[in-house]
Amino acid sequence: MADGVENSCAVVCFLTQAYQDSKNCRKEFTYAEELGKTIIPVYMESKWKPSSWLGVNLAGALYIKGSSLSTESLTTAIIERLRVSSSDHNTGNNTNNATISKNPITTNEISTQSQIKQEPKNKYQQSGITVAGGNGKGHELNQLSQPRGMFIDNDKSIFIADYENHRIVKWKLNSNIGEIIAGGNGKGKQNNQLNQPVDLIFDKETNSFIISDNGNGRVIRYFDQNPTKQQTLIPIIYCSGLAI
């Protein structure tokens, strides 16, 4: 905690009743003041006001009403405060924690600036296109049945955990049918079978697929060049997601 305060250019405090009651938070706040760090108070509870030691330290200080802002707007407002504080520091106006109360920007102005400075969000087409399946629920190669986890490789092929069909299928870009990569031989626990797979990832180092074979309570490895070769990595587990 001390290292974080010492190496910081400013300390952003997300204030709540729990923060005020915390001995560690009080120590951190006090230490930041002693080091002359810029403190940016953010009120995270709409009807709450600081009292006791915190109320004394923040009397007259500029604060951000975090409870009334979206996460994106709050982040922008904090960055704006940091920018202004840095500007004050560079012009010699930063005098310990007095920077907070002397800053001419009001909370409302910060909120307005945060809205103005937001980058326009990308607009997506409102109509999608089918990249896999789309031919009703079924087990044919042009169908899927409750698809779950998936990933896209460098060739833009989509690999899908076809849950109810107990298989992993690969759909190449602009293809009308899928290709079975693993399973597809009915529900079971033999080397060539899967049972309700829910997720998969590709391990580039071993050129293999790692599959969460949820119905069999295991995580297994299928080798890309030899799909009949299977390795159980975790024998007893029920997981819904994988990552390397």
Automatic annotation (TrEMBL):
UniProt xrefs under Pfam families: NHL, TIR_2
Key words of the record: Repeat
GO biological processes: signal transduction
Domain TIR: 1-64
Segments for region (Disordered): 88-122
SUPFAM superfamilies: NHL repeat, Toll/Interleukin receptor TIR domain
Swiss-Prot/TrEMBL NHL repeat ranges: 137-174
Name of the protein: TIR domain-containing protein
